[in-house]
Amino acid sequence: MICAHLLVVLLFIYLGARLGGIGIGFMGGMGVVALSLLGLKPGAIPFDVISVIMSVIMAIAAMQVAGGMDFLVKVAEKILRKNPKYITFLAPTVTYFMTVLAGTGHTAFSTLPVIAEVAKEQGIRPSRPLSIAVIASQIAITASPISAAVVFLSAELEKNFGLSYLQLLGIWIPTTYAACMITAVICNFLGKDLKNDEVYQDRLAKGLITMRGEMQIEIKPYAKRSVMIFLIAILVVMLYATAISKTVGLIQNPILSRDNAIISFMLATAAIITMACKVDTAKITNAATFKSGMSAVICVLGVAWLGNTFVEGHIDQIKAVSAEFLQQYPWSLAVILFFASTLLYSQAATAKALYPTAILLGVSPEAAIAAFAAVSALFILPTYPTLIAAVEMDDTGSTRIGKYVF
Q1: What does the H/E/C string look like for the chain?
Q2: Euclidean distance between the first and the last CA atom of the chain, given in angstroms as a whole number
Q3: Does residue 213 carry a pLDDT above 70?
Q4: Which pLDDT score, from 0 to 100, does residue 42 have?
Q5: Which pLDDT score is estimated for 142?
Q6: What angle, rounded to 10 degrees, do the helices at 347-360 and 332-344 form?
Q7: CA pair distance 116, 100, nearest whole angstrom
Q8: Which of 91, 191, 278, 381 has its CA at a distance of 20 to 30 angstroms from the CA of residue 43?
Q9: 216 contacts: CB under 8 Å, gap ≥ 6
């Protein structure tokens, strides 16, 4: 039955990918129903991951309504326009660190138009900075102190291998950023220059190319204050998570676990921003980050639950087949995570679905740490929102899905 159950999982993930966006979460739930009818007991619902995502999104949405996101976009635009010739390196740097700070890759939406415009003004093929900027915004999830994926895996690795939260961040932040910069070097040579690109020249002749210039963004009175409150909250989260770490041990037997601390701190941050920045709470649920974040929650709920149902139902068979192979070829964990994340549509969902099993199978701590960035392969299938947005925002026609899509 394991083959039949696996086919059901893949079928519903495929159908979800065809629906796009939040549809993959819907199909994940339907897949759980199908597996239940075939005799599998529903697996654990990833409430811990979902709760972290929701609480972080609350704080970000409150900051956005207060004008904080507009302020960050304005800062990002100044950085990009100050050194436009290096946009292929600066663009991923901007989207990377915005994601590290916010814990969600959806922050890239606001910077993609700026990246496309600056590249176009400089005669640089926009597909070069846009492609790596999108990928950097996804990879950075595995380096963000408040992302659900990092919170979950750091807790698992500390529990099983005694590795501290700061130790792990100290590895994941520099290595993932360095990987993005290496890829930026490669991207800098991909595709024809705009002056030699037939598609661009044709669109230019037809008057389909527009130069918008610098974005006119009105910065709200409390925008800077909201960003400052949010940054302080991230610092507090990091300090507390370090203090309760078993390897540091500053707080023995903490009342608040790391998950509970992040959830409560982020909700408190949302409350402080709302009060200190005079935010209308009715507007928070209409914020773009709120809507995209809640869509992500449904995706994680559906696909992670579907994955957990399959894995928990066949854990003995999986152990029998995979344990020796994974121990002998630890690099294979990265390959498994890479292709799983293209289907599971979420770094947190992929980590939640596969890492506990991998650790149970005896994967080494080195392999577990090194493979983590592979959960960010959401850019393989042309369905992720930021990827599609990058294509739509480039009116030069240089950024395309491509002829050969996996």
Answers
A1: CHHHHHHHHHHHHHHHHHHCCCHHHHHHHHHHHHHHHCCCCCCCCCHHHHHHHHHHHHHHHHHHHCCHHHHHHHHHHHHHHHCHHHHHHHHHHHHHHHHHHHCCHHHHHHCHHHHHHHHHHCCCCCHHHHHHHHHHHHHHHHHCCCCHHHHHHHHHHHHHHCCCHHHHHHHHHHHHHHHHHHHHHHHCCCCCCHHHCHHHHHHHHCCCCCCCCCCCCCCCCCHHHHHHHHHHHHHHHHHHHHHCCCCCCCCCCCCCCHHHHHHHHHHHHHHHHHHHCCCCHHHHCCCHHHHHHHHHHHHHHHHHHHHHHHHHHCHHHHHHHHHHHHHHCCCHHHHHHHHHHHHHCCHHHHHHHHHHHHHHCCCCHHHHHHCHHHHHCCCCCCCCHHHHHHHHHCCCCCCCCCCCCC
A2: 28
A3: no
A4: 92
A5: 94
A6: 140
A7: 22
A8: 381
A9: none
Q: What is the mean pLDDT of residues 209-221?
A: 71
Q: Count the residues in the chain.
A: 406
Closest CA to 347 of 83, 119, 126, 52: 52
Spatial distance between the Cα atoms of 393 and 360, rounded to a whole number of angstroms: 44
The C-alpha atoms of residue 193 and residue 200 are separated, in whole angstroms, by: 10
The pTM of the full predicted model, rounded to 2 decimals, is 0.80
Model pLDDT, residue 212: 64
Q: Which of 308, 358, 359 is nearest to 44 (CA)?
A: 308
Token representation of residue 163 = 């590795």
As given in the structure block, the two tokens for residue 142 are 């595995």
pLDDT at 406: 46
In the block, residue with structure tokens 């609480």: 55
Residue 46 identity: P
Residue 308: pLDDT over 90: no
Distance of CA 311 to CAs 36, 174, 236, 314, Å? 13, 32, 36, 5
Non-local CB neighbours of 324 within 8 Å, separated by 6+ positions:
none
Instruction: Answer yes or no: is pLDDT of 226 > 60.
Output: yes
pLDDT in tens, 335-351: 989 988 877 778 888 88
The residue written with tokens 């963000």 in the block is: 144
CA-nearest of 308, 247, 372, 238 to 43 is 308
